[in-house]
């Protein structure tokens, strides 16, 4: 569901290019002034380019209906068609040239998007064969936006002369294409676009409130503090009324001047003037009570989150860093957000710790406590907490940032510490390998079109040596050792290699090479779970391996988007077929129990009345232990249906069926229900089914019934849960 992977727009082509068609000026956006009606030079609504001449391969045979294969969603054009030189991707080149037409108005205006390369990706006005005006799209960096924006040329000096418009694509690298639409002659001047518009704020409060409109053109915003460039952001700034307000924490810069510089804004945009200083975040009173806010699943106060990053126990706190877009509702503009907790259940969100810089956006990575200061990044004699992350520019490189107080993080001056292996390599997960006394990094690398995980080693986190690699895992690797519990191998240990999909392999690791002993095994069995990571440095006395995943909950209409799973304890269970991973909710979640409904052991028959009748809850944990026999045991939790089919030994969550075996004929089922998700655990944790689910607000009931036999329950209990927010 990730917005990163945009689909093609499905517009149809019809109508044809209209040369000289007169359109009422009032139909066009812009500031109206007196003058003759507008004349459309071309609206690119036809099946082909009509009398325009095409050279090269970039422009195809006619207008595009939106995005072309491999392109992000193209927006902001008028009607059904536009000029799009992304045919064949960025590699394609060519020109598109209009027939001569007479200049009869004071301005030519047009919609333009794509690359920002003068002379390479541009639209030119030629008079007497010479280029007299030129313009480009807005993008020259990775990320960016395929939205078209208005630009105009003042052409009064050429009135009455014949002119030609030429659209050019000579660029073949990133953003090597140009998009154009709705070229119009007009007497009504649009307000001038504001280029590199700046606003200074002398900081007297904690936050700047920023107006955001979902889907608006992504503006490049540079943040300066006392004149020094601090970060480079992309923001979907609202030019008028915002959908929601984001915030930038400026508390560190009291009394100093913070300057926001926006690469380009439409003339009439109020984006900069609308920004206000405040001591509270926008809509602070409603924070964490929003309709679709998970009440015990972490989500960020504002903006988008995806992967958990840098999960670590340090200084008596659990730290959850995460992929964060603080200034947009969708993926992009990656920062590392940061939250802390004493129990992994109640989180307190702090500000972002890593913001995009000249090396690129801050992609996923991990954190370690550098005991003994092998990196030399300690200050004040304390062991540093070191973040290892991907700066996903071009090239894509691995970097460090360190802190001794886990509040202020300093990027290492010698970054990057690992140069690009191949484009898109990313997501370093680092751990200390005690037997060989060195750091080990697992990194996702695409090699000759094959997804691989590379293993590197280091003695100081700064210099890394290649050791080995395995194939078959994509993004966000994790690698850890676990004791086998039960079965013939009880007490022995094994290594688990896993990655974003949560599939895994079990095997041996000698400090250099991972030798799998299994094929790829399925991980979670649900939906919308991705890019999980396990905590580093949980004290050995505790010894648990705890994982949190990205849970792709649906939060449309909110000022935040997505969330995390509950914390999950991972174990390796010894099974006849070999060691297998189990997922169990951490015991700390019991702190959320507000009221318990516990039934005596009972047998439920077909047509029996619902033994949980009268129990109502918004947030709940249901636990059941039962002998299903051949029957179907049907749980109803806030409108969701969870069925255990004893005959097929299958669990179904809202119709999504997965295998779930029995132990001694008995099923142990745990269901967590929050506002936007279910997490279901069966078969002693071998079957874990996370499932985004927006529970209808008015549905509060819980029930159980059986069909096809009778079912004996030894445990049947419902815990009404409290919200985890605000009590850290
Ligand atoms: C996984 C992922 C990572 C990357 C991050 C960027 O969801 O694609 O590979 O580092 O998201 O946000």
Please characterize this protein's 3D structure.
With 728 residues, the chain is mainly β. The chain has 4 domains: 148 residues, Jelly Rolls, CATH 2.60.120.260; 85 residues, Jelly Rolls; 302 residues, 5 Propeller (Tachylectin-2, Chain A); 129 residues, Exo-inulinase, domain 1 (Jelly Rolls). The protein has no helices and 53 strands. Strands 32, 33, 34, 35, 36, 37, 39, 40 and 41 form a 9-stranded mixed β-sheet that branches. The site of beta-D-fructofuranose has 14 residues, from strand 20, strand 24, strand 28 and strand 36.
Notable features of this structure?
binds beta-D-fructofuranose, nine-stranded mixed sheet, disordered N terminus, single chain, Tachylectin-2, Chain A, globular, Jelly Rolls, 728 residues, mainly beta, seven-stranded antiparallel sheet
């Amino acid at each position: 569901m990730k917005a990163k992977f945009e689909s093609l727009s499905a517009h149809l082509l019809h109508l044809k290019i209209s040369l000289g068609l007169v359109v009422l000026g009032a139909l066009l956006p812009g500031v109206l002034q007196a003058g003759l009606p507008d004349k459309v030079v071309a609206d690119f609504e036809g099946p082909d380019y009509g009398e325009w001449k095409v050279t090269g391969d970039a422009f195809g045979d006619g207008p595009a209906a939106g995005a072309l294969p491999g392109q992000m969603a193209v927006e902001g054009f008028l009607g059904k068609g536009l000029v799009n030189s992304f045919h064949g991707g960025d590699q394609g080149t060519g020109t598109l040239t209009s027939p001569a037409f007479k200049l009869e108005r004071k301005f030519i205006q047009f919609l333009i998007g794509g690359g920002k390369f003068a002379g390479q990706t541009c639209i030119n006005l030629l008079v007497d064969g010479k280029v007299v005006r030129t313009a480009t799209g807005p993008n020259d960096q990775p990320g960016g936006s395929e939205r078209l924006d208005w630009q105009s040329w003042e052409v009064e000096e050429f009135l009455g002369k014949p002119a030609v418009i030429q659209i050019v694509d000579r660029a073949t690298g990133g953003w090597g294409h140009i998009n154009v639409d709705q070229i119009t002659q007009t007497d009504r001047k649009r307000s001038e676009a504001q280029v590199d518009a700046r606003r200074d704020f002398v900081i007297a409060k904690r936050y700047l409130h920023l107006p955001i409109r979902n889907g608006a053109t992504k503006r490049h915003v540079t943040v300066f503090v006392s004149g020094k460039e601090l970060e480079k952001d992309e923001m979907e700034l609202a030019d008028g009324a915002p959908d929601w307000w984001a915030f930038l924490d400026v508390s560190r810069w009291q009394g100093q001047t913070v300057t926001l510089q926006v690469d380009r804004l439409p003339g009439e945009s109020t984006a900069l003037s609308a920004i206000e200083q405040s001591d509270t975040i926008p809509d602070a009173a409603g924070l964490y009570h929003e309709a679709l806010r998970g009440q015990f699943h972490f989500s960020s106060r504002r903006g988008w989150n995806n992967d958990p990053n840098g999960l670590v126990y340090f200084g008596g706190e659990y730290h959850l860093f995460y992929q964060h877009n603080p200034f947009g509702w969708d993926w992009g503009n990656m920062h590392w957000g940061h939250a802390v907790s004493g129990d992994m259940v109640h989180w307190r969100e702090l500000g972002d710790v890593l913001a995009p810089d000249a090396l690129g956006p801050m992609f996923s990575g991990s954190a370690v406590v550098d005991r003994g200061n092998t990196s030399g990044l300690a200050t004040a004699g304390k062991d540093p907490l070191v973040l290892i992350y991907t700066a996903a520019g071009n090239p894509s490189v691995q970097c460090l940032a360190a802190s001794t107080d886990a509040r202020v993080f300093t990027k290492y001056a010698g970054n990057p510490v690992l140069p690009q292996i191949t484009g898109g390599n990313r997501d370093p997960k680092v751990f200390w390998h005690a037997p060989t006394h060195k750091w080990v990094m697992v990194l996702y690398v695409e090699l000759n079109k094959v997804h691989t995980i590379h293993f590197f080693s280091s003695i100081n986190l700064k210099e890394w040596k290649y050791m080995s690699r395995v194939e078959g895992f994509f993004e966000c690797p994790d690698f850890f050792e676990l004791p086998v519990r039960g079965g013939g191998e009880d007490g022995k240990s094994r290594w688990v290699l896993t990655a974003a999909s949560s599939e895994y392999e079990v095997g041996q690791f000698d400090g250099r090479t991972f030798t799998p002993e299994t094929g790829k095994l399925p991980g979670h069995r649900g939906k919308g779970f991705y890019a999980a990571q396990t905590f580093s440095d949980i004290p050995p006395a505790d010894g648990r391996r705890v994982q949190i995943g990205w849970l792709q909950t649906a939060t449309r209409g909110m000022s935040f988007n997505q969330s995390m799973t509950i914390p999950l304890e991972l174990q390796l269970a010894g099974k006849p077929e070999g060691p297998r991973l189990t997922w169990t909710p951490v015991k700390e979640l019991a702190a959320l129990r507000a009221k318990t409904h516990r039934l005596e052991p009972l047998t439920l028959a077909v047509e029996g009345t619902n033994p949980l009748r009268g129990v109502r809850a918004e947030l709940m944990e249901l636990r059941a232990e039962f002998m299903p026999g051949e029957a179907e045991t049907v749980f109803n939790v806030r409108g969701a249906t969870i069925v255990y089919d004893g005959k097929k030994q299958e669990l179904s969550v809202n119709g999504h069926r997965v295998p779930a075996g029995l132990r001694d004929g008995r099923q142990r089922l745990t269901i967590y229900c929050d506002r936007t998700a279910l997490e279901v655990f069966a078969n002693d944790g071998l079957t874990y089914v996370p499932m985004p689910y927006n529970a209808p607000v008015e549905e509060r009931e819980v029930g159980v019934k059986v069909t096809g036999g009778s079912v004996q329950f030894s445990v049947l209990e419902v815990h009404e849960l409290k919200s985890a927010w605000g009590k850290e």
